[in-house]
Amino acid sequence: MTETTQADAADHVKGRGMAERTTTGPAPGRTATGGGTEPPARPQPIGAFPLPAGFLLVPPGPDTEPARRDLVAGRLPRTWPAALRAHELAFAGDTDGALAHLAGDDPVTRYNRFVIDPDADDPAALRQALGEPYGVLADVVAFTVGRAPEPPALGGADGEVAALVLAAQASHALGRGEPARAAGLLEQAAGHVPEEAAPLAGVLLGSAATIRKDTEGATPEVIAALERALRLVDGTDLRIGRAELHLALGLALHHRAAEDPAATGRAVPHYHAALQLVTCAEAPQVWAAAHANLGAAYLTMPMRQASDRLRVAVAMRSLRAALTVYTRETHPAEWASTQLNLANALVYAPSSHQADNLVEAVELYEEVLAVRDRRADPAGRARVLANQGNALAHLGMFDPAAEKLAEAEALFTECGEAEAARTVRELLDGVTRQAAVARAGG
């Protein structure tokens, strides 16, 4: 299996940064939100849902309180109050419509307008207007959308606000090539999240575990962290986040197959879960990666009975689906791996059109060879050549098959892969004998 590109591990706080924050409390005689209004209740549903809607504050009031509780729990309200019409539209992806409903001049409305239209306000003025504890969020948003070079300092922030500040710092650390620091900051952020906002903790812990998987490998600790993150978001409406976690856990388990062959079977349900949660239009990278790795997993699982052969057909469908997203121009590495897996499946798939499948496989191998450079990846090129030579031999094209296999053997020998070279030599000897028999018979 080839690991595919995933969404940025800190995607919920992706962006570039902001200047150091200056803590400014509310002016005398004013509340934290200004204008004589009460401050929004806490915790606020910030950070868990995708941006920009995931940064919006819910204004206070008995009519908005049920929706706030739903959002904090990771659920979209069944009924949105009129006061949250802008939120409803933003969560539906209609940011223009949301802006039209954010016409007030109170600090919370100004902040929400700033989230959707970062040019609508000055971050420093908005920070002062919001006061504590929410003023620092203006700096977080400014960093996230690229209006400032660095994230704000933690200062006196607490709860979910502190979590969002630390998540922004993690995004900055990741961008600076400091993955270990980024993962640590995300874990620290999750520790600030109040219990009733558990889905936000799940998102943060999942991001941290994904970074650790990419740097430390698929260790049992990383797998346990991903499983914990999934439990925290289970049953929520965070569909894309849940799909990303299922994909990350599937990949981690898949990577452990060398030490634990049963891990491949445990990975498969997570790929299926990711595909049930998102569509290609919503999350093309997640969708394609789940399909590509599902196909690869099915191809590597042993076939012990006739019904297992159905997996090959499922694998081929998934690989073809992934190739609607992966192209040679946009995702060259993922495209090449998926093409190669599809070609391998075509060679061995039971079919009444086996000759047609073999011809397609030979063509797919040839396309992959165009990007598997002899100098940059000699072993990878050798594997493709060996597979293509085998397919040509099945078609009875012995001379071209022998040429491909001879080149593969030479490359494996140059790379020091003696066992692979011996295997190809045995196959080449068999093809040579078959060619001799064919010529004698002719």
Distance between the first and last residues' Cα = 42 Å
The amount of helix comes to 55-70%
Q: For the CA atoms, what is the radius of gyration?
A: 27 Å
Uncertain regions spanning at least 5 consecutive residues: 1-36
Structural class assignment = mainly alpha
Description:
The chain has 442 residues and is an all-alpha fold. It is elongated. The chain has 19 helices and no strands. The longest helix has 24 residues. Helix 9 runs antiparallel to helix 10. Among the domains are: 189 residues, no CATH class; 91 residues, Serine Threonine Protein Phosphatase 5, Tetratricopeptide repeat (Alpha Horseshoe).
In short:
With 442 residues, this protein is an all-alpha fold.
Any key phrases for this structure?
60% helix, mainly alpha
